[in-house]
Amino acid sequence: MDAGRARGTFVLVGLAVGAAPVAAQSQPPFVEAEAVHPLAATLPVLDIATEGERIAVAWFASGALFNGTSDAVVELVSRDANGAVVVEPVVVLQSVAQWFGPNDFTGLAGPRYVDVTPQAVVTATSSWNLQSTGGQPVFTPFSYAVTRHERQTDGTWLELPVFGALFAAPLDVVAPDGLVVCPLATLGTTPFHQTVVTSYPVRVAVPGPSPGWTATTLTTTTPAQTGAPRVATDGETVVVGLQSPTASTTLSGRVELYRRDGGGTWQLEQTLTASDAFAGDRFGCAVSVDGDRLAVSAVQPGTGTFVAYVFERAPGTIGPWSEVAKLVPPLPHAPVVSTATTDVEVVRGRVVVAQPLSDAHAPSAGSADVFMRSPAGAWEHSVRLAPRAGATRGFTSLDADGDRVVAGAIGIGADRGTYDIFEFGSLLAVGDGPSIAAPAPQVLAIDEGVENAGDVYALLGSLTGTSPGVPVAGTPFTLPLVLDAYFEYTLLSIGGGGLLSAPVGVLDNRGRATCSFTIPPGLPPSLAGLKVHHAAVVFDLQAVGVPATHVTNPVVSVLAP
């Protein structure tokens, strides 16, 4: 990030990445919790999901495979009534593997993919056969099950089957309440008893007839046509990424969009390809959708870096979707494994692209590149996020909700896998700080997301920093500004006429607003370098009791000569 520019702030819990840390808002910063499994030499994070203050993590903790045990765990990380972090197991599957001699079989089972909703945790679990061939263990997928786990009043978890089958393995799962989407790899064997993928069906299930679920196949491809599918969903639209087959010299990837009609039937709505598609581009190897914006990951030719294509549709319509940008991470970049599993997330005006590595690149660490859409509509690279552990393959699983991005990483060798939590600031100071010699407005942009559309904001300032902050009366929030003379000035001029234009206003239908900060002419040059801090309180005037919903992060404007 350029000095003096604040295009947003990501904070890794305990470590700032890019700009200054986001101050605590309604509660202390979300504490990263890592479970301890006594048998674990390696704890790769297989998948991760977040919703609100809840994070679901699927771990695989491998112990001794022979004459030992192997745990697969899904944990829910949340907060109790006092704000303390609570880590609880949702699923713990333990298999005992016995070594009796050549060609002996035993079974292993474990959750591979996970999603979380306000009401449930949803898992896609694989079962495996273990066979010894020439003294080496060979794992073969045997069956899968998608299960919805709902917490009961006594604290236990009720398991509700959604669907499952033999001779198949899950490839992903997304499960907003009322919908479950899971792409699969169906399996067969060769005459030499080797397991091969025969097709890639994408299954979608909806509740009913009560108490079960009704599942249908959305689309089916073969390994000769596409690579492993990835899925995303938002409302009534399901996005299916159909990447090009591995090392294909003739086929490029595509994305198919399905929408449910009034009769409950899923119809193919549109097929998307990259504007610069090429054979083997892996377009569709990761997909994410947020309202009227869609992000698709692919491989950049030459460098092998993962890039993101952004598609948009007119607000409030069902389409068509059109490509509006291609987001290419800047160099230098650590070597990326273009055949690795990656992920992409789009949320509000941000796109996050994972850049995984392989063991061969240790001790380098993979990363994730963050792009932001400016108030003027241009996409810019904002910051590069790195895993907390230095020697990892990098992020292979991402999820985002509101201002939080969670990222799962796989360890190398004896290093345990980790997950990292980043918080994003919703108040941005665009461009450099105002110039004393040639005063011009600096834009301050607020992006609170569509869920806060129609809320009222109030922008205030401070010349002496952000701590200890100003408590917002009658709320649990603390505004990250110091109560000083400038704070009082912005409070008294909140109706207009001060240095801030539109210090009070209403967030538009996307939860956004634009203000500006202008310094008066004739200031002495000695004030160059002065830091002016701003932050906002957001109010929901329809709320009962406590109208203030939250406060934003602070941003700093540094006066230029």
What is the strand and helix layout of this fold?
Blueprint: E1 10-12, E2 15-17, E3 45-51, E4 54-62, E5 68-79, E6 85-97, E7 105-116, E8 121-133, E9 136-151, E10 157-166, E11 168-170, E12 180-189, E13 195-207, E14 213-221, E15 230-234, E16 237-242, E17 254-260, E18 266-272, E19 286-290, E20 293-299, E21 306-312, E22 322-327, E23 344-347, E24 350-355, E25 367-373, E26 379-385, E27 392-401, E28 404-411, E29 418-424, E30 427-429, E31 442-447, E32 456-462, E33 470-471, E34 478-479, H1 485-492, E35 500-501, E36 504-506, E37 512-517, E38 531-539, E39 548-551, E40 555-558
Describe the structure.
The protein is mainly β. 1% of the residues lie in helices and 50% in strands. It has a domain at 427-558: S-adenosyl-L-methionine-dependent methyltransferases, CATH 2.20.130. It has one helix and 40 strands. The strands form ten sheets. A five-stranded antiparallel β-sheet has the order 2-1-29-28-27, with no helix packed on it. Strands 32, 36, 38, 39 and 40 form a five-stranded antiparallel β-sheet that branches. A hairpin with a 5-residue loop joins β17 and β18 (266-272).
Percent of residues in helices comes to: under 10%
- Could you say what the CATH topology of the domain at 427-558 is called? S-adenosyl-L-methionine-dependent methyltransferases
Structural class by helix and strand composition: mainly beta
Low-pLDDT runs of 5+ residues are 1-42, 62-69, 95-106, 358-364
Number of extended strands: 40
- Lateral strand order in the biggest sheet: 2-1-29-28-27
Rg over CA atoms? 25 Å
**Global geometry:** globular
Main beta-sheet annotation: 5 strands, antiparallel
User: What is the mean predicted local confidence, pLDDT?
Assistant: 77
Distance between the termini: 21 Å
Range of strand content: over 45%
Shape-level CATH architecture of the domain at 427-558: Single Sheet
